[in-house]
Amino acid sequence: xxxxxxxxxxxxxxxxxxxxxxxxxxxxxxxxxxxxxxxxxxxxxxxxxxxxxxxxxxxxxxxxxxxxxxxxxxxxxxxxxxxxxxxxxxxxxxxxxxxxxxxxxxxxxxxxxxxxxxxxxxxxxxxxxxxxxxxxxxxxxxxxxxxxxxxxxxxxxxxxxxxxxxxxxxxxxxxxxxxxxxxxxxxxxxxxxxxxxxxxxxxxxxxxxxxxxxxxxxxxxxxxxxxxxxxxxxxxxxxxxxxxxxxxxxxxxxxxxxxxxxxxxxxxxxxxxxxxxxxxxxxxxxxxxxxxxxxxxxxxxxxxxxxxxxxxxxxxxxxxxxxxx
Length: 325
Fold this sequence. Notes:
Elements lengths: L1 H27 L8 E5 L2 E9 L2 E4 L8 E4 L2 E2 L8 E2 L5 H16 L3 E3 L11 E3 L2 H9 L4 E2 L9 H12 L12 E5 L12 E7 L5 E6 L8 E8 L2 H13 L4 H4 L4 H14 L8 H16 L7 E9 L18
Helix pairs in contact: 3-4, 5-7
């Protein structure tokens, strides 16, 4: 069996190579050849078309026709001038979103996937070289779909980009970037609607629950619950030194501990990812620190903003008036 596998593997590889090469050649001869970007999908070079900076459509090869969502990071919406914060206006950040799309199209990237899909049916791919390149340039921010921090190497790259005011960070850094907003009338059967916000400090997701109705082209700005991260980090360091908490914190690294501390200060509860065995002792310790004033106070401030436009009004001839240019 092993001998047969060794003999047939080169032949199979040759067949795959010939098929992919033929698909590439056929696609390049088409009308959209100038838009092709080469991406290695699980090791196979494939032509793709970047819809924006964090998604693409596969044009040929084994995954032809499939749509991809890239994990670990997020670029700003490119359907129109949707985002604003600091002294940026929406048109300026729209340019940043388009730059992220061009950055994807102009490179050669390497992506892997276990072929799982997101809620929109897109295949989830991890493209670490593209993620890091976009974040370094300030064309993307670290993004995790749940309340856990993102990958540490991407967080470090983002902090450097923020420090050097690259790309989207040149004119202000909100504590959260709002990435999706939903009016309560989108689904009348739901009791609440949710807006998704992403921490610029560590990439974790937070949700704002509300019952507001948004009009088309309305600019919706988040009210941030801001904390003093210097004090939060100092308290997290004190918790780490507390021998009574050693067992509870054994599986929580420093970044996650700081994140949990800030989350508790904002919401008076721990994030869901904290293990059951750790929840009671950690919550008790944080409650005591908060009562003593060690964590500081939460202040509210205007954060990032996003224009509300339903998905079916973002593209084509029927697109909303605020997106036309």
